[in-house]
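Cross-posting from the modeling subforum.

Setting up a comparison between two proteins and wanted a second pair of eyes on the formatting. Protein 1 (sequence, then structure tokens):
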Amino acid sequence: MIKKCLFPAAGYGTRFLPVTKAMPKEMLPILTKPLIQYGVEEAVEAGMNTMAIITGRGKRAIEDHFDISYELEHQIKDTSKEPLLTEIRSLIKKCTFTYTRQIEMKGLGDAILKGNALIGDEPFAVVLADDLCINQEGAGVLEQMVKLYEKYKCSIVAIMEVPEDQTYKYGVIDGKEIEEGVYMISNMVEKPEPKEAPSNLAIIGRYILTPDIFDVIKNTKLGKNGELQITDALMSLAKNGMVLAYKFKGQRFDCGSVDGYVEATNYLYDLEKSGS
């Protein structure tokens, strides 16, 4: 069983300036919950109970959110507002939250490597909180991926089809489909220009990684934009073993962009109003 989920949350969130000057982008609310809480809930639904969060300067609000606020609890005790804390209280009770800092922004690969001390020598999930994933018709994306891991016991990335002119925004894979929606990766390219992209199958912010990824990252050279890219490390794993890509069931919103954030807010608002 995969019990730990890593949340890289040290980035600056520059696409949302000026609000992210003092507020972590992971704490931006979709309706009444911050983005990172949706990710934690998804991990819990997939059977995970230890959340390893990579933070940075100015991110204390994340730690405070997943903690008891005694003054607030006292003020709203036995009032109509108290039930509003039911969900977050449940998460705090169910989960252990651990934290470490990424001192310099050196890419997603470096952020994941910083989590080695929190994860140890076991397989784990990775969630990028600004990718909000919702599946109204069944299991969440991480739960789907955990079931696939139980079958293949290898690293897995979540993928979706994107317009061919948008490949420069993503890591893009190529591979052979070995069962419906599951690809054995033969190539991965970080943010290729459309004419250089091997396909239109783009990696989004959900991963299941085996612990050997840490040693691979340590031996990976700096890549695109002078950063340590997890795509490059996973390509090394794919050459020496097997890495799968999974076309997940559900919908993904890019809440790191204003358009995606507004789309996600409207989508969940409509769901709540309809009682779904």
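Protein 2 (same layout):
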Amino acid sequence: MERTFAIIKPDAVLAGHTGAILQRVNEAGFSLRGMRLVRLTKTDAEGFYAVHRERPFFDSLTTFMSSGPAVVLALESLDAITRWRTLMGATDPAKADEGTLRRQFGSSIEHNATHGSDAPETAAFELGYFFRGVELG
């Protein structure tokens, strides 16, 4: 079994898509090991996305991620990282495959409804950023 980290981003929460996304998580066979509703501060978002600090989109990304509530998830399944990234779809919803979360719920590259870890090391950092070990089932 493998764990991965996921976020239902502020745009999807604001649009009322949290329940539908969680239903898709369940239907895809993921075990939910942790879930929290969070409201990131700008500083929280900057710490989480520190790897992108030098990128031109860093300020707009961290401003967006601190603009409203988000739902953070710890998901578990066989090959969880790859399976979650496949379910999410391409970063740009316009290029995402039909049936993916980003295609269905995203509206732009930045407002793309979901986030997911891209590697085991990233998942470990991101899970640790939002969940203490005792919080995960």
